Amino acid sequence: YAPGVFDYYHKRTRLFREAHTHLRINWTGSVYSSAACNLGPQVATFLHRDCMNLPFGFCAIHAFGDYDYTKGGHLVLKELKLIIQFPPGSLILIPSATITHGNIPVREGETRTSFTQYTAGALFRFVDNGF
Questions:
Q1: Contact residues for 28 (Cβ-Cβ < 8 A; gap 6+)
Q2: Rounded CA gap, 56 and 68, in Å?
Q3: From which domain of life does this come (predicted)?
């Protein structure tokens, strides 16, 4: 829960959308401007940082599929030295630009997909600098 970060996203997203009404939004009610659907069937990511995202902002990561979350699909947060069981249906908000993250592959025959929402840091800079 980070009301200040949400407010930062909400205000700037609203200003951007009001100034650029010709652009279509992904969906109403979201403060995120981008989304990625990773359809797998066995989505796994190498450890990485999304360095073009807002450094203090959050990325929303949803995991889906049919896998034994005690055996694979774990979320890895390198700097925090955490490996977290991440069952299908889980959602986490992480500062993806500043924390190295990835996930452990699932086993053969299992499926794992993901849906991630984020906003590029450049959009915030664009708004903050008067478009």
A1: none
A2: 32
A3: Eukaryota
**Which pLDDT score, from 0 to 100, does residue 18 have?**
93
**Residue 1 in this model has a pLDDT that exceeds 80:** no
Contact (Cβ atoms closer than 8 angstroms) between residue 107 and residue 67: yes
Domain that residue 75 falls in:
3-129
Rounded to the nearest 5°, which phi and psi values hold at 47? -60, 130
Say how many residues make up the chain. Answer: 131
Can you give the CATH number for the domain in which 68 is found? Answer: 3.60.130.30
Q: Is the distance from CB of 90 to CB of 63 less than 8 angstroms?
A: yes
49-105: pLDDT as tens digits: 999 999 999 999 999 999 999 999 999 999 999 999 999 999 999 999 999 999 999
Q: Tens digits of per-residue pLDDT, 8-36? A: 999 999 999 999 999 888 888 889 999 99
Integer Cα distance of 123 and 100 in angstroms: 22
Instruction: Calculate ∠ Cα 109-110-115, nearest 5°.
Output: 140
The backbone torsions φ and ψ at residue 65, rounded to the nearest 5 degrees and listed phi first, read: 135, -165
